[in-house]
Design a protein that fits this description.
Layout (H helix, E strand, L loop, with lengths): L4 E5 L22 E6 L5 H4 L3 E2 L2 E2 L6 E4 L5 E3 L4 E9 L4 E8 L2 E11 L6 E2 L4 E5 L9 E8 L15 H4 L3 E6 L25
Antiparallel strand pairs: 1-2, 1-13, 2-5, 3-4, 5-12, 6-11, 7-8, 7-10, 8-9, 9-11, 9-12
């Protein structure tokens, strides 16, 4: 595979934590995950797409590989505010509101919750899509921390990794997306007038 990849060891640590924002996220997938695309990666590819009319500065979330149909868990307690479909981009996705902001889980198959439902930290929200794509089956996980600005070149999103307290992230290979790997990157929605973004 020619994407930049890394192993994301998603073991939640509960000791020695301190974050000024007080955000401690539960890993949205079980066990160790392959990090297909990290925060801010592949800026040349993502600059071709806009969020609220502003070109993206890089990848606005984490893409974590998992088996098709794998369970997707809530990163924190909250309320499901949106279940929708973004054709040509996120596919089926869930947005959940938390005391600190919101989380988005995309490329989903079976949805196991309803809009308006209150969910517990670690509760299974959905299962990953099962259809075969040219790119690896994965979860796109993103967060927005209040107050956020959707016109910042990131769509208002923040890097989730510092808040996940994973034990290790390694980058065994780095490849230039200009050398052909962008054809394996998941699709992004091309923004048009009237298009609603997550």
């Amino acid at each position: 595979m020619s994407l930049s990849t890394g192993i994301l060891s998603a073991h939640f640590r509960t000791t020695g934590q301190y974050e000024p924002e007080g955000i401690y996220l539960f890993p949205p997938l079980e066990g160790d995950c392959l990090l297909l695309q990290g925060w801010g990666e592949n800026p040349a590819y993502h600059a071709r797409f806009t969020y609220n009319g502003i070109a993206l500065k890089g990848h606005p979330g984490l893409d974590m590989a998992a088996a098709r149909g794998a369970p997707v868990m809530a990163a924190d307690a909250g309320k499901v505010t949106e279940i929708s479909m973004e054709a040509g981009g996120f596919g089926r996705y869930i947005k959940t509101e938390h005391r600190w902001g919101e989380s988005i889980y995309a490329h989903l198959g079976t949805i196991l919750v309803e809009a308006g439902q209150v969910v517990a930290r670690g509760q299974t929200l959905a299962r990953l899509e099962t259809s075969k794509q040219r790119y690896w089956p994965h979860l796109h996980f993103a967060i927005r921390i209040n107050p956020f600005n959707r016109f910042d070149g990131w769509g208002g999103f923040s890097d989730p990794l510092p808040f996940l307290y994973v034990s290790e992230v390694t980058k065994p290979e780095e490849n230039d997306p200009e050398e052909g790997s962008s054809d394996l990157l998941p699709p992004m929605l091309v923004e048009r007038p009237g298009v609603r973004r997550a």
